[in-house]
Amino acid sequence: MEEIRSAAEALRRGELVAFPTETVYGLGADAENESAVRAVFAAKARPPDNPLIVHIGSALQLNQWVTELPEAARVLADRFWPGPLTLVLRRGPRLCPLVSGGLATVAMRVPSHPVALALLDEFGGAIAAPSANRSGRVSPTQASHVREELGAAVCKVLDGGPSEIGVESTIVDVSGSTVEILRPGAVTREQLRAALGEQVRVAAHARGGAPGQYPAHYCPAARVELVQPERLVERARSLREHGERVGVLAQRKEADRARFQAEVGLAAVVPDDLVDFARRLYSALRHLDSMGCTVILAVPPEPIGLGLAIVDRLQRAAGAGA
Ligand code: TXA
Ligand code: MG
Predict the structure, then answer these.
(1) Which of 86, 98, 115 to mutate to test the pocket of ligand 1 (most atoms within 8 A of CB)?
(2) Which of 22, 53, 105, 120 has most ligand 1 atoms within 8 Å of CB, for mutation?
(3) What does pTM read for this prediction?
(4) I need a labelling partner for 138 at 20 to 30 A (CA). Which of 26, 129, 215, 264 fits?
(5) Phi and psi, residue 41, nearest 5°
């Protein structure tokens, strides 16, 4: 396809290309080109010590980019690639150190979106790509989000429609003596356990806890507050009495959209289930922002399966407003 060919050429010239993946949109650069990688950090206003994810077209290419392939990496790549899983491994000499913020390790992923795979195939090399948002903001799940957020800083945006999964990949560190989840995502802790035949640790910062412990990240303009379902109506009323414009994000089983809007005049986004919740999470935060909400009340799901990733992102969004 002509569009893919010209995007691959742009990458070869050291330009940036935003592209769709099944998780969120990425802002891509040639991972071997230091000035291109530098431009990614600049476009996002991302601190240089926050490493990027390196995308490749196939697990067979892994040994070109990393120095060791532990057994756990082989098992997980075989089971979950292409897909929403990122593996942290020892970085090889071909990648510029800047890609991984100077760390000795590098985060690698084979995405499953057909446009991402076509671009990787046409380009032939490795594409360093963080989510295509400005640092600390909500990740883009549609091409229009990327254009709104980064504008002219990106030379090209490939449009692959809305992201199917909606939250960033699961990051698993397989570079050390124990396998550890650094960021929960659509490849769940339960699935990792089944694939490896052992329990997988979730890193302390990714395990849940008080919202205030979370670094400012994934934040919309409105303040996000997590609330249990039984307190939702009462909390919304009290905020409204204090002049706040309240939006609601809660699964259908916990919130009846019509009832909320009738009772307290709220803007509400009501996903059907966990898959729908993840898929719509970031566009819901953007939508409620655009409706002029000053507070978003979010009812977190159970932190099981995909629920763990949703809770993680909601807590980070809430932490940012604290
Ligand atoms: O789904 C995704 O992973 C998306 C799409 C575009 O692939 N990408 C994404 O990239 O979410 P980004 O930059 O927003 O998040 C990358 C995160 C970093 O914030 C960092 O926490 C982690 O990956 N990371 C990268 N390299 C690492 C390393 N060597 N060790 C530990 N964590 C690393
Ligand atoms: Mg990001």
Answers:
(1) 86
(2) 53
(3) 0.94
(4) 264
(5) -60, -40
d(CA 82, CA 73): 13
Following DSSP, what letter does each residue of 257-269 receive, concatenated? HHHHHHHH--EEE
Cα radius of gyration rounded to whole Å, the chain: 20
Tally of helices (H runs) and strands (E runs) in the chain: 10, 14
Q: How far, in Å, CA of 218 to CA of 163, rounded?
A: 16
For the CA atoms of 126, 31, 184, 70, the dihedral, rounded to the nearest 10 degrees, stands at 60
Confidence of residue 209 (pLDDT cuts 50, 70, 90): very low
DSSP string, 187-254: S-HHHHHHHHTS--EE-GGGS---GGGSPS-SB-SSEEEE--GGGHHHHHHHHHHTT--EEEE--GGG
Single-letter residue type at 282 = Y
Grouping H, G, I as helix, E, B as strand and the rest as coil, residue 300 is: coil
pLDDT confidence of 255, banded at 50, 70, 90?
Answer: confident
For the sheet with 26-30, list strands across it.
156-157, 17-19, 26-30, 127-128, 53-55, 105-109, 85-90, 170-173, 180-183, 201-202
pLDDT tens digits along 145-204? 999 989 876 779 999 999 999 999 999 999 999 999 999 999 999 999 999 999 999 997
Q: From the CA of 259, how far away is ligand 1's center (Å)?
A: 39
C-alpha 40/C-alpha 112 separation (Å) is 22
Instruction: Check: CB of residue 183 under 8 Å from CB of residue 170.
Output: yes
